[in-house]
Amino acid sequence: MPPCLALAPVAAPPSDPSPPPPGIVHDRSGGYRAHVTLHAVRRFADRICGLEPVLEGLTDREAVEALTGLGYDVPGIRAWLAFYGYPGPRWGANGVTVGRVGLVLSGSRVVTVVMRGA
Q1: What is the pTM for the complete model shown?
Q2: Is residue 7 part of a domain?
Q3: pLDDT tens for residues 55-114?
Q4: Among 34, 18, 7, 31, which Cα is nearest to 90's?
Q5: pLDDT at 71
Q6: pLDDT the model gives residue 32
Q7: Residue 88, number of CB atoms within 10 A of its CB
Q8: What's the structural domain count of the chain?
Q9: CB hemisphere CA count around 79 (13 angstroms)
Q10: Does residue 25 fall inside a structural domain?
Q11: What is the radius of gyration, based on Cα positions, of the chain?
């Protein structure tokens, strides 16, 4: 076995693979997903949905609860962030870019969201 393969982390496939978010054509993830923090969901709403003025002054938990109350698909946002956030740690990246949306990673967690070109 080559030395680099001996150092590669061995990951067991998830026992209950997660389906990809709607609209995904190619899914080669094997059901693996990143952990998404409340802060990342909140920053997605602030920066991508333009809700920063609405959520100003709320904690991350309160902001996510408010999103649910406003009718936003919070589980869908989480699924999207988790799906696109997984490949980064797998390849040793600190971030992933999907179009103009940047996901900032810490290990296998999506910790915040930024918008490129803003």
Answers
A1: 0.79
A2: no
A3: 999 999 999 999 999 999 999 999 999 998 887 766 778 888 888 999 999 988 999 999
A4: 34
A5: 94
A6: 79
A7: 20
A8: 1
A9: 13
A10: no
A11: 16
